[in-house]
Amino acid sequence: MNKKHSPQRPNVVFLIADDHRDEAIRAFGNETVHTPILDSLAASGTACRNTHIFGGLTGALCAPSRACVHTGISLFRAMIGKEVMNREHSSVIRPDVRLMPQTMREAGYHTHAVGKWHNDKASFSRSFEGGDKLLFHGMSDHTKVPVHDYDPTGAYPKEKEYIERTFSTELFSDAAVNFIEDYLEDRPFFLYVAYTAPHDPRTAPEPYASLYDKADIPLPPNFVSEHPFDTGDMTVRDEKLALLPRDEDEIRQHIADYYAMISHLDAQIGRVIEALKAKGIYDDTLIVYTADHGLALGQHGLMGKQNLYEHSVRIPLIFRGPGVPEGQQELALASNIDIFPTVAGLCNVDLPKETEGVSLCPIFAGETEGVRSIVCSVYKDIQRMATDGRWKLIRYYCSPKTNTGTERIQLFDLLNDPWETQDLSADPANAGEIERLASELASWMQACSDILQDMPVIPGTS
To answer: Which family does this protein fall into (predicted)?
Structure first.
Protein backbone atom coordinates (compact mmCIF):
# COMPACT_ATOMS: atom_id res chain seq x y z
CA MET A 1 0.00 0.00 0.00
CA ASN A 2 1.55 3.26 -1.18
CA LYS A 3 1.30 6.01 1.43
CA LYS A 4 2.48 9.58 1.32
CA HIS A 5 4.50 11.24 4.06
CA SER A 6 2.16 12.43 6.79
CA PRO A 7 3.01 15.58 8.75
CA GLN A 8 1.62 15.71 12.28
CA ARG A 9 -0.96 18.36 11.48
CA PRO A 10 -1.78 18.80 7.79
CA ASN A 11 -3.82 21.67 6.45
CA VAL A 12 -7.38 20.64 5.59
CA VAL A 13 -9.54 21.71 2.66
CA PHE A 14 -13.01 20.29 3.22
CA LEU A 15 -15.22 20.50 0.13
CA ILE A 16 -18.92 19.62 0.32
CA ALA A 17 -21.36 19.73 -2.60
CA ASP A 18 -25.16 19.86 -2.60
CA ASP A 19 -27.11 16.99 -4.27
CA HIS A 20 -24.07 15.19 -5.75
CA ARG A 21 -24.74 11.45 -5.73
CA ASP A 22 -21.90 8.94 -5.54
CA GLU A 23 -22.43 7.49 -9.00
CA ALA A 24 -22.05 10.82 -10.86
CA ILE A 25 -18.24 10.82 -11.12
CA ARG A 26 -16.43 9.39 -14.11
CA ALA A 27 -13.77 7.67 -12.02
CA PHE A 28 -16.57 5.71 -10.37
CA GLY A 29 -17.76 4.20 -13.65
CA ASN A 30 -20.06 6.87 -15.09
CA GLU A 31 -18.84 7.20 -18.68
CA THR A 32 -21.06 10.17 -19.52
CA VAL A 33 -20.13 12.81 -16.94
CA HIS A 34 -16.79 14.69 -17.19
CA THR A 35 -15.04 15.12 -13.82
CA PRO A 36 -11.27 15.19 -14.46
CA ILE A 37 -10.41 16.99 -11.19
CA LEU A 38 -12.39 14.66 -8.97
CA ASP A 39 -11.01 11.74 -10.97
CA SER A 40 -7.47 12.92 -10.22
CA LEU A 41 -8.26 13.28 -6.50
CA ALA A 42 -9.59 9.73 -6.46
CA ALA A 43 -6.54 8.46 -8.38
CA SER A 44 -4.12 10.06 -5.93
CA GLY A 45 -6.19 9.33 -2.82
CA THR A 46 -8.85 6.98 -1.49
CA ALA A 47 -12.52 6.98 -2.48
CA CYS A 48 -14.90 5.47 0.06
CA ARG A 49 -17.50 4.18 -2.37
CA ASN A 50 -20.04 2.81 0.09
CA THR A 51 -20.76 5.89 2.19
CA HIS A 52 -24.37 6.57 3.17
CA ILE A 53 -26.08 9.54 4.74
CA PHE A 54 -27.67 9.14 8.15
CA GLY A 55 -30.81 10.79 6.77
CA GLY A 56 -33.20 13.45 7.96
CA LEU A 57 -36.59 14.13 9.51
CA THR A 58 -37.64 16.84 7.06
CA GLY A 59 -37.83 17.16 3.30
CA ALA A 60 -34.93 19.63 3.45
CA LEU A 61 -32.26 16.96 3.89
CA CYS A 62 -29.35 19.39 3.52
CA ALA A 63 -29.49 20.65 7.11
CA PRO A 64 -29.69 17.32 9.01
CA SER A 65 -27.14 15.70 6.72
CA ARG A 66 -24.69 18.54 7.30
CA ALA A 67 -25.38 18.38 11.03
CA CYS A 68 -24.34 14.70 10.96
CA VAL A 69 -21.17 15.55 9.03
CA HIS A 70 -20.34 18.44 11.38
CA THR A 71 -20.94 16.53 14.62
CA GLY A 72 -20.28 12.86 13.90
CA ILE A 73 -23.37 11.88 15.86
CA SER A 74 -26.96 10.77 15.25
CA LEU A 75 -29.26 13.53 14.06
CA PHE A 76 -31.60 12.49 16.90
CA ARG A 77 -28.91 13.63 19.33
CA ALA A 78 -27.21 16.34 17.27
CA MET A 79 -30.28 18.47 16.67
CA ILE A 80 -32.66 20.12 19.07
CA GLY A 81 -35.08 17.50 20.41
CA LYS A 82 -38.01 15.99 18.54
CA GLU A 83 -39.04 19.48 17.51
CA VAL A 84 -37.32 18.77 14.20
CA MET A 85 -40.33 16.72 13.12
CA ASN A 86 -42.45 19.88 13.18
CA ARG A 87 -40.17 22.19 11.22
CA GLU A 88 -39.65 21.72 7.51
CA HIS A 89 -36.29 23.44 7.55
CA SER A 90 -35.02 22.39 10.97
CA SER A 91 -31.36 23.30 11.20
CA VAL A 92 -30.41 23.91 14.82
CA ILE A 93 -27.49 21.93 16.28
CA ARG A 94 -27.61 21.54 20.05
CA PRO A 95 -25.42 24.11 21.84
CA ASP A 96 -23.66 21.44 23.92
CA VAL A 97 -22.51 19.46 20.86
CA ARG A 98 -19.03 20.11 19.50
CA LEU A 99 -18.61 20.30 15.74
CA MET A 100 -15.75 19.23 13.49
CA PRO A 101 -14.56 22.79 12.73
CA GLN A 102 -15.03 23.76 16.37
CA THR A 103 -12.89 20.80 17.45
CA MET A 104 -10.23 21.66 14.86
CA ARG A 105 -10.24 25.26 16.10
CA GLU A 106 -9.80 24.13 19.70
CA ALA A 107 -6.90 21.91 18.54
CA GLY A 108 -5.04 24.93 17.16
CA TYR A 109 -6.29 25.12 13.57
CA HIS A 110 -7.21 28.40 11.92
CA THR A 111 -10.79 27.67 10.82
CA HIS A 112 -12.24 29.54 7.86
CA ALA A 113 -15.57 29.00 6.10
CA VAL A 114 -16.79 29.77 2.60
CA GLY A 115 -20.26 29.24 1.15
CA LYS A 116 -23.34 27.48 2.45
CA TRP A 117 -24.01 26.91 6.13
CA HIS A 118 -27.49 25.44 6.35
CA ASN A 119 -27.37 25.06 10.13
CA ASP A 120 -27.78 27.65 12.87
CA LYS A 121 -25.59 30.72 13.21
CA ALA A 122 -24.60 29.91 16.79
CA SER A 123 -22.99 26.62 15.77
CA PHE A 124 -21.24 28.43 12.92
CA SER A 125 -19.87 31.11 15.22
CA ARG A 126 -18.34 28.70 17.70
CA SER A 127 -16.71 26.80 14.83
CA PHE A 128 -15.04 29.45 12.65
CA GLU A 129 -12.72 32.38 13.32
CA GLY A 130 -12.97 33.64 9.77
CA GLY A 131 -15.03 33.34 6.63
CA ASP A 132 -16.16 34.89 3.37
CA LYS A 133 -19.25 34.81 1.12
CA LEU A 134 -21.34 33.04 3.74
CA LEU A 135 -24.76 31.74 2.72
CA PHE A 136 -27.20 31.07 5.57
CA HIS A 137 -29.92 29.65 3.32
CA GLY A 138 -30.71 26.27 1.81
CA MET A 139 -30.54 27.41 -1.81
CA SER A 140 -30.65 30.42 -4.13
CA ASP A 141 -30.43 31.36 -7.78
CA HIS A 142 -26.81 30.75 -8.68
CA THR A 143 -26.38 34.31 -9.97
CA LYS A 144 -28.30 35.97 -7.12
CA VAL A 145 -26.58 34.65 -4.03
CA PRO A 146 -27.52 36.27 -0.68
CA VAL A 147 -24.34 36.29 1.37
CA HIS A 148 -22.77 37.76 4.50
CA ASP A 149 -19.25 38.84 5.24
CA TYR A 150 -17.75 37.20 8.31
CA ASP A 151 -19.20 38.74 11.47
CA PRO A 152 -17.04 38.24 14.59
CA THR A 153 -20.09 38.99 16.77
CA GLY A 154 -21.95 36.03 15.29
CA ALA A 155 -25.12 38.05 14.72
CA TYR A 156 -25.32 38.07 10.90
CA PRO A 157 -28.32 40.46 10.80
CA LYS A 158 -30.53 40.41 7.73
CA GLU A 159 -29.68 44.03 6.90
CA LYS A 160 -26.01 43.08 6.43
CA GLU A 161 -26.87 40.47 3.81
CA TYR A 162 -26.12 41.41 0.20
CA ILE A 163 -26.53 39.86 -3.24
CA GLU A 164 -23.58 38.54 -5.26
CA ARG A 165 -24.07 38.11 -9.02
CA THR A 166 -21.01 35.95 -9.68
CA PHE A 167 -22.13 32.36 -10.31
CA SER A 168 -22.20 30.63 -6.90
CA THR A 169 -19.61 27.96 -7.69
CA GLU A 170 -17.17 30.57 -8.98
CA LEU A 171 -18.01 32.95 -6.13
CA PHE A 172 -17.17 30.38 -3.47
CA SER A 173 -14.08 29.13 -5.33
CA ASP A 174 -12.81 32.71 -5.67
CA ALA A 175 -13.14 33.15 -1.89
CA ALA A 176 -11.36 29.85 -1.21
CA VAL A 177 -8.50 30.72 -3.58
CA ASN A 178 -8.13 34.15 -1.99
CA PHE A 179 -7.89 32.61 1.47
CA ILE A 180 -5.18 30.16 0.36
CA GLU A 181 -3.17 32.82 -1.46
CA ASP A 182 -3.33 35.25 1.46
CA TYR A 183 -2.74 32.82 4.32
CA LEU A 184 0.46 33.65 6.21
CA GLU A 185 0.07 32.04 9.64
CA ASP A 186 2.38 29.28 10.84
CA ARG A 187 -0.42 27.14 12.25
CA PRO A 188 -2.35 24.80 9.93
CA PHE A 189 -5.71 25.84 8.53
CA PHE A 190 -9.07 24.14 8.19
CA LEU A 191 -10.78 25.61 5.12
CA TYR A 192 -14.43 24.64 4.77
CA VAL A 193 -15.88 25.24 1.29
CA ALA A 194 -19.57 24.45 0.91
CA TYR A 195 -20.99 24.70 -2.60
CA THR A 196 -24.63 24.96 -3.63
CA ALA A 197 -23.99 23.05 -6.87
CA PRO A 198 -25.27 20.86 -8.41
CA HIS A 199 -28.54 21.74 -6.61
CA ASP A 200 -31.27 23.25 -8.77
CA PRO A 201 -31.81 25.61 -10.43
CA ARG A 202 -29.37 23.74 -12.67
CA THR A 203 -28.25 26.70 -14.78
CA ALA A 204 -24.54 26.10 -15.40
CA PRO A 205 -22.74 28.87 -17.30
CA GLU A 206 -21.31 28.32 -20.75
CA PRO A 207 -19.49 26.41 -22.04
CA TYR A 208 -20.71 23.88 -19.48
CA ALA A 209 -24.43 24.44 -20.18
CA SER A 210 -23.87 23.14 -23.73
CA LEU A 211 -21.45 20.38 -22.78
CA TYR A 212 -24.11 17.66 -22.72
CA ASP A 213 -26.70 16.98 -25.41
CA LYS A 214 -29.76 15.30 -23.96
CA ALA A 215 -29.86 13.02 -27.02
CA ASP A 216 -26.58 11.50 -25.83
CA ILE A 217 -27.72 10.97 -22.24
CA PRO A 218 -28.58 7.34 -21.45
CA LEU A 219 -31.49 6.76 -19.12
CA PRO A 220 -30.53 4.90 -15.96
CA PRO A 221 -31.51 1.21 -15.83
CA ASN A 222 -33.99 1.92 -13.02
CA PHE A 223 -35.87 4.67 -14.85
CA VAL A 224 -39.64 4.24 -14.69
CA SER A 225 -42.39 6.71 -15.50
CA GLU A 226 -43.95 6.52 -12.03
CA HIS A 227 -43.00 5.07 -8.67
CA PRO A 228 -45.12 1.93 -8.09
CA PHE A 229 -46.45 2.95 -4.64
CA ASP A 230 -46.76 5.90 -2.26
CA THR A 231 -43.41 6.45 -0.51
CA GLY A 232 -45.06 8.83 1.93
CA ASP A 233 -43.74 12.04 0.36
CA MET A 234 -44.83 12.02 -3.26
CA THR A 235 -45.78 15.71 -3.46
CA VAL A 236 -42.67 17.28 -1.90
CA ARG A 237 -41.18 20.20 -3.85
CA ASP A 238 -38.48 18.14 -5.60
CA GLU A 239 -41.04 15.74 -7.08
CA LYS A 240 -42.75 18.66 -8.83
CA LEU A 241 -39.67 19.59 -10.87
CA ALA A 242 -40.72 17.24 -13.70
CA LEU A 243 -44.04 16.16 -15.15
CA LEU A 244 -45.85 12.99 -14.12
CA PRO A 245 -45.70 10.46 -15.58
CA ARG A 246 -41.99 11.06 -16.16
CA ASP A 247 -41.15 11.79 -19.78
CA GLU A 248 -37.92 10.22 -21.06
CA ASP A 249 -36.88 13.28 -23.03
CA GLU A 250 -37.50 15.62 -20.11
CA ILE A 251 -35.55 13.39 -17.73
CA ARG A 252 -32.60 13.26 -20.15
CA GLN A 253 -32.54 17.07 -20.12
CA HIS A 254 -32.60 17.13 -16.33
CA ILE A 255 -29.65 14.75 -16.24
CA ALA A 256 -27.76 16.77 -18.87
CA ASP A 257 -28.23 19.92 -16.79
CA TYR A 258 -27.16 18.06 -13.64
CA TYR A 259 -23.97 16.84 -15.30
CA ALA A 260 -23.26 20.36 -16.60
CA MET A 261 -23.41 21.67 -13.03
CA ILE A 262 -21.11 18.90 -11.84
CA SER A 263 -18.54 19.50 -14.59
CA HIS A 264 -18.50 23.22 -13.82
CA LEU A 265 -18.10 22.43 -10.11
CA ASP A 266 -15.27 20.05 -10.95
CA ALA A 267 -13.41 22.75 -12.89
CA GLN A 268 -13.79 25.27 -10.07
CA ILE A 269 -12.45 22.77 -7.53
CA GLY A 270 -9.49 22.52 -9.87
CA ARG A 271 -8.80 26.22 -9.25
CA VAL A 272 -8.68 25.60 -5.49
CA ILE A 273 -6.24 22.75 -6.02
CA GLU A 274 -4.06 24.88 -8.28
CA ALA A 275 -3.92 27.53 -5.55
CA LEU A 276 -2.64 24.90 -3.09
CA LYS A 277 0.01 23.82 -5.60
CA ALA A 278 1.08 27.40 -6.33
CA LYS A 279 1.45 27.96 -2.60
CA GLY A 280 3.61 24.84 -2.34
CA ILE A 281 1.31 23.17 0.20
CA TYR A 282 -0.68 20.72 -1.93
CA ASP A 283 1.07 17.61 -0.62
CA ASP A 284 0.85 18.87 2.97
CA THR A 285 -2.91 19.37 2.73
CA LEU A 286 -5.66 16.85 3.41
CA ILE A 287 -8.39 17.34 0.80
CA VAL A 288 -11.82 15.91 1.51
CA TYR A 289 -14.63 15.88 -1.04
CA THR A 290 -18.17 14.81 -0.20
CA ALA A 291 -21.83 15.84 -0.53
CA ASP A 292 -24.81 16.22 1.76
CA HIS A 293 -26.94 13.63 -0.11
CA GLY A 294 -27.71 12.28 -3.56
CA LEU A 295 -30.64 12.75 -5.96
CA ALA A 296 -33.02 10.60 -8.03
CA LEU A 297 -33.52 12.56 -11.28
CA GLY A 298 -35.87 10.00 -12.82
CA GLN A 299 -34.58 6.90 -11.11
CA HIS A 300 -37.46 4.83 -9.71
CA GLY A 301 -39.80 7.47 -11.15
CA LEU A 302 -38.63 9.97 -8.53
CA MET A 303 -36.89 13.34 -8.82
CA GLY A 304 -35.67 14.26 -5.34
CA LYS A 305 -33.67 12.92 -2.44
CA GLN A 306 -36.62 12.22 -0.13
CA ASN A 307 -36.21 8.45 -0.31
CA LEU A 308 -33.75 5.76 0.76
CA TYR A 309 -32.72 4.29 -2.57
CA GLU A 310 -28.98 4.19 -3.32
CA HIS A 311 -29.15 7.18 -5.67
CA SER A 312 -30.25 9.34 -2.76
CA VAL A 313 -28.44 7.94 0.28
CA ARG A 314 -25.00 7.17 -1.19
CA ILE A 315 -22.60 10.08 -1.42
CA PRO A 316 -19.10 10.56 -2.83
CA LEU A 317 -16.36 10.59 -0.20
CA ILE A 318 -12.77 11.14 -1.34
CA PHE A 319 -9.73 11.69 0.87
CA ARG A 320 -6.44 12.83 -0.63
CA GLY A 321 -3.32 13.86 1.26
CA PRO A 322 -1.03 12.90 4.16
CA GLY A 323 -1.81 9.49 5.61
CA VAL A 324 -4.18 8.50 2.80
CA PRO A 325 -3.40 5.56 0.45
CA GLU A 326 -3.18 6.35 -3.24
CA GLY A 327 -5.48 4.98 -5.90
CA GLN A 328 -7.84 3.05 -3.63
CA GLN A 329 -11.58 2.59 -4.02
CA GLU A 330 -12.84 1.14 -0.76
CA LEU A 331 -16.17 -0.68 -0.64
CA ALA A 332 -16.31 -0.88 3.15
CA LEU A 333 -19.57 0.40 4.61
CA ALA A 334 -19.48 3.91 6.04
CA SER A 335 -21.89 6.56 7.30
CA ASN A 336 -21.55 10.32 6.96
CA ILE A 337 -21.14 10.49 10.75
CA ASP A 338 -17.80 8.70 10.15
CA ILE A 339 -16.33 11.64 8.21
CA PHE A 340 -15.50 13.79 11.25
CA PRO A 341 -13.72 10.94 13.12
CA THR A 342 -11.70 10.15 10.00
CA VAL A 343 -10.60 13.76 9.49
CA ALA A 344 -9.68 13.99 13.17
CA GLY A 345 -7.68 10.76 12.95
CA LEU A 346 -5.74 11.93 9.90
CA CYS A 347 -4.99 15.24 11.67
CA ASN A 348 -4.06 13.73 15.05
CA VAL A 349 -6.91 15.59 16.76
CA ASP A 350 -8.82 14.17 19.73
CA LEU A 351 -12.53 13.58 19.24
CA PRO A 352 -15.29 14.86 21.52
CA LYS A 353 -16.49 12.11 23.87
CA GLU A 354 -20.03 12.21 22.43
CA THR A 355 -18.87 11.29 18.90
CA GLU A 356 -20.69 8.22 17.59
CA GLY A 357 -19.06 7.92 14.17
CA VAL A 358 -16.21 5.51 13.49
CA SER A 359 -12.86 6.49 11.97
CA LEU A 360 -12.01 4.94 8.61
CA CYS A 361 -8.28 5.34 9.34
CA PRO A 362 -7.83 1.64 10.26
CA ILE A 363 -9.02 0.79 6.75
CA PHE A 364 -6.55 3.24 5.23
CA ALA A 365 -3.75 1.73 7.34
CA GLY A 366 -4.61 -1.80 6.17
CA GLU A 367 -5.45 -2.88 9.71
CA THR A 368 -8.99 -4.00 8.84
CA GLU A 369 -11.22 -4.41 5.80
CA GLY A 370 -14.14 -2.60 7.41
CA VAL A 371 -15.33 -0.79 10.52
CA ARG A 372 -19.08 -1.39 10.14
CA SER A 373 -21.11 -4.51 9.44
CA ILE A 374 -24.26 -2.54 8.67
CA VAL A 375 -25.36 1.01 7.91
CA CYS A 376 -28.84 2.46 8.26
CA SER A 377 -30.62 5.61 7.15
CA VAL A 378 -33.85 7.40 8.04
CA TYR A 379 -36.34 9.62 6.28
CA LYS A 380 -39.03 11.40 8.28
CA ASP A 381 -41.44 9.03 10.05
CA ILE A 382 -42.11 7.10 6.83
CA GLN A 383 -38.93 5.25 5.77
CA ARG A 384 -36.01 3.34 7.32
CA MET A 385 -33.19 1.43 5.62
CA ALA A 386 -30.54 -1.11 6.58
CA THR A 387 -27.83 -2.67 4.40
CA ASP A 388 -24.90 -4.97 4.97
CA GLY A 389 -23.36 -3.97 1.65
CA ARG A 390 -25.02 -6.73 -0.34
CA TRP A 391 -28.56 -7.09 0.99
CA LYS A 392 -30.66 -4.01 1.60
CA LEU A 393 -33.97 -3.69 3.42
CA ILE A 394 -36.19 -0.62 3.11
CA ARG A 395 -39.12 -0.33 5.53
CA TYR A 396 -42.00 2.00 4.66
CA TYR A 397 -44.50 3.32 7.22
CA CYS A 398 -47.83 5.12 6.96
CA SER A 399 -47.42 8.53 8.56
CA PRO A 400 -50.04 9.22 11.23
CA LYS A 401 -49.41 12.95 10.75
CA THR A 402 -50.01 13.18 7.01
CA ASN A 403 -51.93 9.96 6.34
CA THR A 404 -49.51 9.17 3.52
CA GLY A 405 -47.20 6.25 2.89
CA THR A 406 -47.45 2.49 2.51
CA GLU A 407 -46.99 -0.25 5.08
CA ARG A 408 -44.53 -2.51 3.28
CA ILE A 409 -40.91 -3.51 2.81
CA GLN A 410 -38.49 -3.92 -0.09
CA LEU A 411 -35.46 -6.19 -0.29
CA PHE A 412 -32.67 -5.74 -2.84
CA ASP A 413 -29.58 -7.78 -3.67
CA LEU A 414 -27.16 -4.95 -4.39
CA LEU A 415 -24.43 -7.30 -5.61
CA ASN A 416 -26.54 -8.59 -8.48
CA ASP A 417 -28.94 -5.64 -8.75
CA PRO A 418 -27.06 -2.40 -7.93
CA TRP A 419 -29.79 -0.26 -9.52
CA GLU A 420 -32.45 -1.74 -7.21
CA THR A 421 -34.81 -2.86 -9.95
CA GLN A 422 -35.97 -6.19 -8.45
CA ASP A 423 -37.74 -6.26 -5.09
CA LEU A 424 -37.06 -9.72 -3.65
CA SER A 425 -39.03 -9.36 -0.43
CA ALA A 426 -41.87 -11.67 -1.55
CA ASP A 427 -39.56 -14.63 -2.23
CA PRO A 428 -39.76 -17.08 0.72
CA ALA A 429 -36.13 -18.02 0.08
CA ASN A 430 -35.13 -14.57 1.34
CA ALA A 431 -37.01 -14.70 4.64
CA GLY A 432 -33.76 -15.22 6.54
CA GLU A 433 -32.15 -12.13 5.02
CA ILE A 434 -35.22 -10.05 5.86
CA GLU A 435 -35.33 -11.28 9.44
CA ARG A 436 -31.61 -10.63 9.92
CA LEU A 437 -31.69 -7.11 8.49
CA ALA A 438 -34.91 -6.29 10.35
CA SER A 439 -33.26 -7.31 13.61
CA GLU A 440 -30.19 -5.20 12.80
CA LEU A 441 -32.39 -2.23 11.92
CA ALA A 442 -34.40 -2.51 15.15
CA SER A 443 -31.20 -2.62 17.22
CA TRP A 444 -29.79 0.39 15.38
CA MET A 445 -33.00 2.38 15.83
CA GLN A 446 -32.91 1.75 19.55
CA ALA A 447 -29.20 2.55 19.86
CA CYS A 448 -29.47 5.91 18.10
CA SER A 449 -32.70 6.98 19.87
CA ASP A 450 -34.76 6.87 16.67
CA ILE A 451 -38.20 8.39 17.16
CA LEU A 452 -39.68 5.21 15.61
CA GLN A 453 -37.69 2.78 17.74
CA ASP A 454 -40.86 1.29 19.27
CA MET A 455 -42.56 0.71 15.92
CA PRO A 456 -42.52 -2.78 14.36
CA VAL A 457 -39.81 -3.12 11.72
CA ILE A 458 -41.81 -5.59 9.63
CA PRO A 459 -45.49 -4.88 8.95
CA GLY A 460 -47.80 -7.13 10.90
CA THR A 461 -45.32 -7.83 13.68
CA SER A 462 -45.32 -6.52 17.23
So the answer is: Belongs to the sulfatase family.
